[in-house]
Amino acid sequence: MKTHPVSRVSLGVLLVALVVAPLPVSAGDSSSGGAKVIAPVLQPFVDRHELAGAVTLVADKDKVLSLEAVGFADVAAKKPMPTDAVFWIASQSKPITATALMMLVDEGKVKIDDPVEKYLPEFKGLWQAVGQNPDYLLLRKPKHPVTVRHILTHTSGMPFKSVMEEPTLDLLPLRDAVRSYAMTPLQSEPGSKWQYSNAGINTAGRIIEVVSGMPYEEFLDRRLFGPLGMKDTTFWPNEDQLKRLAKAYSPNRDKTDLQEITIGQLKYPLSDRKRQPMPAGGLFSTAADVGRFCRMVLGGGTFDGKRYLSEDAVKQMTSRQTDKGVKENWGLGWSVSDGSFGHGGALSTNMTIDTKRGLITVFLVQHAGFPGEGGKSQGAFRKAAEERFGDSKK
């Protein structure tokens, strides 16, 4: 891999950078338009080859406060990271799928505590695995049916994926993938245990199809992406978007530098429409688009004067919904904690909504792990964002 010169940024320069105020940014702008606040904080990670590049966004419910890029979209080619770079946001797709389903809840077409089998008959008669060895598998009937709440909180007992989802996760039509889950024994009693499950969120996507009468991806385009102006959010990046796609990296063998990788969970070419939309992790997007989605959620379900979700739906979605016996705090598609909620993706992307500060932070990178101190880059970004913008509403 080609290297680039290392420039050391002093603590004094960092502190000065943190107090320089950028100009306000509208949701459609592609750069901060003023002095950069975040980039100087992340530049040392780039200089040390611990971070290839990143696009960061800070916003409140009314406007974008900062949109910046740092580093490289392609390290070897020394291609600078643009603010409109496209990223595989992976599991950040999960809250988007949950939001789409909550639209149907608002319309009275789905109830959170209904059994999944009400909408998907193939889920009738599920079995739960309670013991096994190389010679046998012991099954029993679960005490409770899997509900919509269970699949959105990762407490359904369903596995991460089925054995049919190989070699990548985007090959089976959604209908067939969900049928394969219904044929797979549950791994725990529904509601009793938290286990991260793509299968559960994909099942939620299939419910959207059955109830709405349209393909899952079409529902997202019509009800969310189009109206919100999320023009670069898609399961199939087009030619222009592929030119803006940030390359993915992992630490090299001795963890001293970066090496380029492909996205192992997806089949190439990424633009091929034979690839199937994956509700649990198939979306590509930009920081600006993710910011629009988060601003709608922070706005209690409204964006630019249009209502997408009821306030009750947003509150339910972003507050703890897991049972008392489950230690993990999980809403409906969101990880939740005291005063904030969010979700990350497989290649270290993240979106967090801090309701106490009224602040949204979006961190987009393409890293399957980091060499050196690179794993601290997201925390450094969030700290800088909170220090500069956290009091913007006071």
Distance between the termini: 47 Å
Question: Order of strands side by side in the largest beta sheet?
Answer: 3-2-1-15-14-13-12
Structural class: alpha+beta
Task: Indicate the low-confidence ranges by residue numbers.
Answer: 1-33
Strand content: 15-25%
Number of helices: 11
In this structure, how is the largest beta sheet organized?
7 strands, antiparallel
Mean pLDDT: 91
Helix content: 25-40%
Q: Would you report the number of β strands?
A: 15
The string of secondary-structure elements, in order, is: HHEEEEHEEHHHHHEEEHEEHEEEEH
Description:
The protein is 28% helix and 18% strand. The protein has 394 residues and is α+β, with helices and mostly antiparallel strands. The strands form five sheets. A seven-stranded antiparallel β-sheet has the order 3-2-1-15-14-13-12, with helices on both faces.
What is the fold's blueprint, element by element?
Layout: H1 11-19, H2 39-47, E1 53-59, E2 64-74, E3 79-80, E4 87-90, H3 93-106, E5 128-133, E6 136-140, H4 148-153, H5 174-182, H6 198-212, H7 216-228, H8 239-243, E7 248-251, E8 258-261, E9 283-285, H9 287-298, E10 302-303, E11 306-307, H10 311-317, E12 335-337, E13 340-344, E14 350-354, E15 359-364, H11 377-389
Antiparallel strand pairs: 1-2, 1-15, 2-3, 4-9, 5-6, 7-8, 10-11, 12-13, 13-14, 14-15
Helix pairs in contact: 3-6, 5-6
